[in-house]
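Deliverable D5.2: sample structural annotation.
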Amino acid sequence: MELNKLFLAMMAASSLALTACGSDSDSSSGPSDTDQPDTQVLTGTAATGLAMDGTVYVYDAEGRSTNVVIEDDGTFSVNVDGMTAPFMLEARPDDASLAIQYSFAEAADINVNVTPLTTLALFLANDKQSLAVLLAAWDDQAESFDETALAEAEETILANFADQFEEQSIDAETYDLFNAVFSANQTGFDAVLDDVKIVFDMDGGSFDVEVDDADYTFVPDADFDDETGGETGGETDTTPDAISFASQTDVNPDEDAFSEVVTVTGFDGEATVTITNGQFQVNNGNWATTGTISAGDSLRLFQEVPNTFETTTITTVSINGHDFSFTTTTRAADVTPDNIRFTAQAGVEPSSTVTSNTVTLAGFEGQLALSVTNGFLFVNGSEAGTSASVSAGDQIQVIQTSSGDFGTSVTSSVTLGSVATAFTTTTRAMDTTPDSFSFVSQSDVEIMAASYSNTVTLAGFDGELPISVTGNAGLMINGAPRGVTSANVSAGDTVQVVQEVVGDFGSDMVTTVTLGSYSTTFTSTIRDADTSPNAFNLTNLTDAEPGTRIESNTVTLEGFEGALTLTVTNGELRVNDDLSGASVSVEAGDEISVVQQSSADSETTVVSTVSLGDFSTTFETTTRETSTIVDVFSFVRQTDLEPGVEAISNAVTLSGFDGSQTFTLRNGIGSLIVNGTNMGTSASVSAGDSLQLAVTTSENFGWNAHAVVEFSNGSVMFIAGTRAANTVPAPFSFTSVTDVEPGVEVVSEPISFSGLEDFTRIQVTNGAVRSSRYPGQTLTSLSVHPGDSLTVVHTSSSQYETDMVTTVSTLEAYGSVSATFTSTTKAAASGQTDPVMDTRWNLGQDSMTALSLAVSPEANGTELHMLKNTGSASSLMNVSPDSSDREFAELQALASSDHEGLAVALLEQGNTSEQLIFSCDTSVQPAKLSARLASDPAAVSSLELSDTVSASLAGRASSLQEGMPWSVNACDDLSIADVIYNQSDETFQIKVGVNGAGKMNTSDYYQMAVFQYSYDLNAADASTALTKTEAYPVYRVMFGTQHYKAAEFFLDDPQSGRSFAVFKNDGSNTHNYLRMYDGGGSSVDLLISPYNKFTAEEGTWDVADMHIWMESDTAYHLYLTSETMGLYEVVYDPISKTKTSERLHTSGDQQFCKGSITGSVSGPNPTFWCHDATDEGKLIEFGHTPMSASRMQSAVLGEKPVKEKASKEEAEQIKAELEGAGAEVEVK
């Protein structure tokens, strides 16, 4: 043990010696009055065999900390200015998986390393307790930390790894693990760190060691043997003898204090010296904060004394860990100030702010309390309130408000520490003599007006004085709106005199104002009277009637005072509505005018002169020029006169001209009647004469005769018109004919019209006429003149025993007389075919709403199917037109009349042949498509006409979203688009086209859609035989959208996939048109040419149904039935997408095809059936008739039918009528 103590003392002395050498090199001079110690830093290296990447944290004994990032080579330098040793260091790696390393520094300005060996030394010295816990409490543990135990732990570590140090040529006995300088370059000491690996379990109080990658048993009491450590001769004494430094008192603040010099003894070798709160000097050397000392050396301490009184400061020097203190105490402060004095001030203004003289404080140290009552303080020029802390040298003033009374004192009491003084002010005596003032005289003042003086400000006196005014006047004080005759006023008040001026023109009005003992006057001089009137003007008159009494305009006299005499020459005066002769006394405000007689001659002036005071003016009237202008007059138009009679106008009285004039009749037509006498075509007349015109009426009906009288300044017309001719003929009739052949031209017996005075206009319905006036022409409308004869011509019915009726009627404007011509076809001979019809149907009660022939891609069916509606009920009917029984048979009674549309699919496969009938049930929404076999019509399979938007459909338009619901709620039309037999499951795939009103999401649309179904003929339950496989809209338009036409009817071409639709004119577009969809997303619109011919201009052509017959790939015949026109045929080339021809079928019964239509869809000899508009229970059967060139209309040029032209005679008659109404007409 003695050897160990000696070794430790030698090691400590060695460490102190090294540190002291470092200190001597860093500190070259001791303390003086101006020198301060250098910046304190800790430098070192953090490594574990390689340089550490991370941050070094330094913690001091006072709980302060700082940190710095480790350099790439492992070195660091930390500024520890202001921090207190000893320090504990912590090196935190950036890689959180690596261990934290710890170290210790007993002082600043030294080299200190952070390695696993310094961590081990601290761990052993801390009795293997957690270093993290020690670090957390370092501010409490630093002073008591056992540095001796740390030195022993360091020796043990060096002894355990002496071999590794020897391998690197390092003397382990003398190596300093904490303070030796090394580089993290894997050589020297860094190589030792590479060989020695330590893993700590600090919470468990243990550690494991590997040396050269092999486990190593750490020897806790390892020591150097004599060979490696050497003989020491006994223990080393490291404890110095006790030393003491005398305390110093009554030290002046902010002075340097030096201890006495003492000699240190009692220890061996060199000892480590550190100092707190000061510096030390060894053997009169440089002043330092760390270093070494040997026994026998002299030691002196230095301390900076604080700049505060009665403050004790302790400086502690440590020698080998043994502390010795040096204490100083500053003296007490001087708190008794020199006396202060403020100069009293007299004659100050009342209620004014008064500032005292400036006093500089002296005679005391530190700060004293300064206070004032009845005032406030200024310290060094800044306001400080009523109290402040002050120092010697500060300058103070007292601010005080003087008394509000005259001759009165106010005192402010000031206290500084133990010294008191006062500052006193006294106000001046009261002044009762005002300064003089005056009012400026006013001139040219109006009588009874208010005269205002200038405003004066009162001054030169204190308190209040009485003020008063004499005469008819008042005082306006401080701008008051009303004047007073007396008041009490103060200096600073303003005063203005106001007089109510009375007296004569040119006189003075004097008012006296008295203030205290002072008086002054205010004078107003009334102006002189005004005797000059304002100028006035009497407006001259021209174009006056000769010899008449004329009065001028009225003027109001102004601008003078008192009474003046008004005179006039050549006239009379009217004053205030009274005639007053040629001279009268007037005053301002009177209203006057001049009355004068105009000259009896034309273009002559009369002058009247008016005088008033020094003003005069004239009033002149000039008579008009001689007039030749006749005043406006007119004659009343006469109508409904008989042709060829004399018409005499109303009488007018002439006026407006002087003398006489000659009136003449234009073109000598008519005669003049002057004052009841017929004067012929010319007469001399004067103003006041009575004038009439006479003229002979036209020999024609509805014509006008004109007589025009001309005079100096114009002309006037008299019109006499004849009555209209009678254009309503007497009743007429045609004799009916019977037993005529079907489909031949039938001509009636001719008839003549009687009772006419002029031509009349007739029109023909369901036929035409031929007139004797227009030979060779067959017309449907024309003009008929008296004596004309007519015959009716029409084509007899194509059916046997059927009437054809033609109606001939006059237009409504011509009396609406009508007659009919009827032809009845003969009875059918034996073997001839009866029409397809059911005589049990009632016109007006029963209606056929749909008609369909069964179709498939390979064949047409043999039966026709139709929907019959009767009131609230409906029935499904059929008929075989090729059989002998051509009457309709009822297949199935339906529940209600809410069934629309009809389409029949022909299902053929092998020996199977069935007709599947589709109808649309609109009693529910969405509507349902019902399917039933003709062989079992009571068994029904129904599916809703609804679906959702598919992904492919959603991509076509931004408004379509995938999954959006859509439906058809009302069916305008159904059609079979395709029928395919599926061999694999023995079902038929049927594509049905549907058109009608519906919805897309929540919006209303017209939908054109295709629904694809699978139908199982072998289904056990017929209600489940129909299943939907696909559905998609072909086209849609929104309800009510401007310029969009609703799709009315739809039919899909089953062979080409093309679809056709008719769009009606809804009022926003003037055209009806066909649209074809080619199945590829594009479409073509075709104008229907005759929309103007067969309906009113811009009217709507209502299409009832449509059927397509495919004559060839380039010739599709579209048969359209119109409720207003009948059957219309359009031939369309789907390849070139052009319309090649079109025609209206007017021959035979085809003109009555105005409802449903069906028939062959292909083949060279098609047959078609349509509903007869004249008979609800009848079908019209017809074949295809090729179009002639004369019946075709250009699809390219859009030609319209040529309208009927008028004959020359009709044109001349129309021209006469229009000219009679005043129009100009040219006949071409």
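Annotation notes: The chain is about 10% helix and 45% strand. The domain at 541-623 is CATH 2.60.40 (Immunoglobulin-like).
The annotation will be released with the project's public dataset once the embargo ends.
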